[in-house]
Amino acid sequence: MSVKISITGDLGSGKSTVCKELNNKYGLKIFSTGTIQRKIAVDMGMTTLELNKYMETHPEIDEQIDGELVKLSSSDENIAIDSRMAWHFVKNTYKVFLTTDETVAAQRVVSDQRGQSERYADVPHAIKLLKERKTSENYRYKDKYGVDCYNYANFDLILDTTEISPAAMADTIMRQCSEAAANDVVPLFLISPLCLYPTKRLDHAALQHVDEYCDLLSQGKPTQPVRIVASNGYFYIYDGHCRAAAHKKLGMPLVPCMMVAGDEGLVAGDISADEFALREYSLSKAKDWEGLIGLEFITYPQ
To answer: I want to staple 87 with a disulfide (CB 3.0 to 4.6 A). Which of 11, 18, 44, 95 is the partner?
Structure first.
């Protein structure tokens, strides 16, 4: 049976980079709709953001790209598909969503020469434009197909690329894909400690529990996933602060997590994930967390 992996995610999260690694290391053939879209933008004398807005009222461009995706369902080749909509259009794919810290994503696209269709003055400018493009793209896909490309429930693996190399990305994806072929797939979140924001304060007494989890992890023993709430692209710890801290203390770049609720979904107490994040997270908690476990967040949720 052929291996088909559909890869989407945050802008600047490394989608094309990991596809190249999957090709180089594992021999998967690459199919990229982003390359097609950037060529269309250049041909039409537009930036990528301008083309996205144009496509909101010109569905024929999406249809041109979608038709190529549908054909891949019958392919017997091993392929990695870098596409916003492959998870929806291509049958029997292992569905991967890549996420990353927004500042890291902006730094990547600023340093990456993507041609005249994507130009950024600096990192703050890139953050602003990437958010606008994300909003535009998701609006278009919701309106056209009735699907949410940022609904994590649609994917098998949500992988944070903030701290890991392209080789580690590819290895993780292939390992999880192989395991999923033999087991029922439950959405798995592997999130960087730098992207898990605290909703409780840790005191020095709690550090004893952190050390206990460090001992378990050092012995290769499993711990329960950290339970998280997703809101506006950020991940907040709902339960498992000590487990998350132990991963950071050991220098582990990924923390296994499971999602309690996302955005408008409800958490305990019948409040939405957005309300939970607004009520329970604070900058002072993040600073306390940094001081106790030797962590420095790259971005602080606004």
So the answer is: 95
pLDDT tens digit sequence for 127-181: 888 888 888 888 878 888 888 888 898 999 999 999 999 999 999 999 999 888 7
Residue 174's CB is within 10 A of a number of other CB atoms, namely: 19
Measured CA to CA, the distance from residue 194 to residue 228 in angstroms comes to: 14
Three-state DSSP class for residue 75:
coil
Q: Which CATH number is 145's domain given?
A: 3.40.50.300
pLDDT digits (tens, 9 = 90+) for 116-142: 546 777 888 888 888 888 888 888 788
Length of the chain: 302
Its pTM stands at: 0.88
Residues 41 and 118 in one domain: yes
- Contact by Cβ (8 Å): 170, 25: yes
Domain edge (last residue) among 120, 151, 181:
181
Q: Tell me the residue type at 15.
A: K
